[in-house]
Amino acid sequence: MRTLATRFAGIDGMIRLLALFIGLAVVVAAPFAIWGEHTDRLWSTAALVETAGDSLAYAWLIIIALLVVDLLIPVPNTAVIAAGGILYGPLLGGAVATVGLVMAGLVGYGASRRFGRPVARWLIGEDGVEEGERLFANSGGWLVAASRWLPILPEVISCMAGLARMPFHRFVLAMLSGVIPLAFAFATAGYYGADRPLLTLVLAALLPLPVWYVIRSLQARATP
């Protein structure tokens, strides 16, 4: 009887967790639905290069700032990263984009871990919070690594990881597994004027998972 009750509690917690995920996704997606078309024009690759082309000493700050504020307002990340590649080349441009994307992930993770826990308990109850902890303890690294190339999901998953108190070092390593391929793939595409956006997207989407697998394997071998 107790086992059955525990199982039903787990199912209820998962439903509550899913509701929180959908709610966060709606909140993050709302600015895209309202202002997305305008910001796509405002911060397109060509517009960014034209605006920042004469200020290379400071353009990297603009790129990082845009990638970070994507947590709050709709910013076309891939266009910003491609502009960094055009301005600074694939290596430095990719490095600048990596810094911006990592900072965005850390802000979402840190703010949710520090301030979001009471709100999550109020919205989905202790069962939902515990279910989130179990999910991110078992599969959090895969979720974080695989979500980086998708719209909206990186912000949502970063916040969920913070709410679930996913270990900080694991979150950072998983995030880097997804961020680095994304940053350097689109910076390279911008620099060389790649006319194969689908190939760039496929590389950014598929590389994070084997990278995270290698990191996990190395960590497992290093653990006595």
UniProtKB/TrEMBL annotation:
<feature type="transmembrane region" description="Helical">
    <location>
        <begin position="171"/>
        <end position="192"/>
    </location>
</feature>
<keyword id="KW-0812">Transmembrane</keyword>
<feature type="domain" description="VTT">
    <location>
        <begin position="75"/>
        <end position="191"/>
    </location>
</feature>
<dbReference type="Pfam" id="PF09335">
    <property type="entry name" value="VTT_dom"/>
</dbReference>
<feature type="transmembrane region" description="Helical">
    <location>
        <begin position="14"/>
        <end position="35"/>
    </location>
</feature>
<feature type="transmembrane region" description="Helical">
    <location>
        <begin position="87"/>
        <end position="111"/>
    </location>
</feature>
<feature type="transmembrane region" description="Helical">
    <location>
        <begin position="56"/>
        <end position="75"/>
    </location>
</feature>
<feature type="transmembrane region" description="Helical">
    <location>
        <begin position="198"/>
        <end position="215"/>
    </location>
</feature>
<keyword id="KW-0472">Membrane</keyword>
<dbReference type="InterPro" id="IPR032816">
    <property type="entry name" value="VTT_dom"/>
</dbReference>
<keyword id="KW-1133">Transmembrane helix</keyword>
<dbReference type="GO" id="GO:0005886">
    <property type="term" value="C:plasma membrane"/>
</dbReference>
<protein>
    <submittedName>
        <fullName>VTT domain-containing protein</fullName>
    </submittedName>
</protein>
<keyword id="KW-1003">Cell membrane</keyword>
<dbReference type="InterPro" id="IPR051311">
    <property type="entry name" value="DedA_domain"/>
</dbReference>
